[in-house]
Specification:
Layout (H helix, E strand, L loop, with lengths): L1 E5 L2 H18 L4 E4 L6 H12 L9 E4 L1 E3 L10 H8 L11 E2 L8 H14 L5 E4 L21 E4 L2 H7 L12 E4 L2 H5 L4 E5 L5 H9 L17 E6 L8
Parallel strand pairs: 1-10, 2-3, 2-6, 3-5, 6-9, 9-10
Antiparallel strand pairs: 4-8, 7-8
This protein binds 2-phosphoglycolic acid.
2-phosphoglycolic acid binds next to loops.
């Protein structure tokens, strides 16, 4: 694992965007694995700004997102389909046909998940997978468990994740209880992994990811076994790693 310390959120976002744009410049038709959540928003903004300046071109890029809430339509403002358009896709020259997010609107979990596994495999898996990390060490919606997950599957969100995500909903009762998520094994197939984290609330999870035992109790800890994983985190998120 390579750990890059950023001063603050803005610095973290710029450094992460630099790594993503380098990937796109080096391989214009690359496959990006993308993430939602508050943490990557700054990196997406920076990439949009560089796109507008003509520095990076997404015309040939294809993307596969990590996860989606089960039961939300693609147009639901709380869905990750909507999030990605709002924060990234609508502001760059990516072909929307080349963007993929698990289909949370399909109530048939087994069908939705196996379909997603097929298209991610057919794409050859991401050249670069962007990840946030949950306060409880989750990646995607792979929550702490007694085993690591494999392919895309339907998960029951933990209370701590429902609590953490409730800030984005009118009330905690509105937070979906289930999601479809790429599995840990699929995440590990990416040729490069870029984890972004900021703020003190992530300090324990970042410590456990980088220096704790490799255990499904902290799903992100498996990234220690990836041969090309870069963590870009601000000082607060790295405060327990000194
Ligand atoms: P956040 O979520 O970026 O909103 O903190 C990260 C995650 O849960 O993966």
């Amino acid at each position: 694992m390579k750990i890059i310390k950023a001063k603050d959120y803005e610095d973290m976002s710029r450094k992460a965007a630099n790594i993503i744009s380098a990937q796109v410049i080096l391989k214009p038709d690359c496959v990006l694995g993308l993430a939602t959540g508050s943490t990557p928003i700054g990196a997406y903004k920076q990439l949009v700004a560089w796109y507008e300046k003509g520095d990076v071109d997404f015309a040939e890029v294809s993307t596969y997102n990590l996860d989606e809430y089960r039961g939300l339509s693609h147009d639901d403002p709380q869905s990750y389909h909507y999030f990605m358009r709002e924060n990234f896709f609508d502001h760059i020259n990516i072909d929307l046909n080349n963007t993929h997010v698990p289909d949370g609107s399909n109530p048939d979990a087994a069908a939705a998940c196996s379909e997603y596994d097929k298209i991610v495999a057919a794409a050859g898996y991401p050249d670069l997978q962007l990840l946030g990390i949950g306060n409880n060490g989750h990646i995607g919606f792979n929550e702490p468990d007694d085993h690591f997950s494999k392919g895309t599957h339907c998960v029951d969100l933990t209370e701590s994740t429902i609590q953490a995500n409730s800030r984005l909903f009118d009330s905690i009762d509105d937070v979906p209880r289930q999601a479809y998520t790429m599995g840990t094994q699929t995440i590990m197939y990416a040729r490069m992994i870029l984890v972004v984290a900021n703020g003190e609330a992530k300090a324990q999870a970042v410590h456990d990811m980088c220096y704790g035992p490799v255990t499904p109790a902290c799903p992100a800890s498996i990234l220690q076994l990836h041969t090309n994983c870069v963590v870009v985190a601000d000082e607060a998120a790295l405060s327990l790693c000194e």
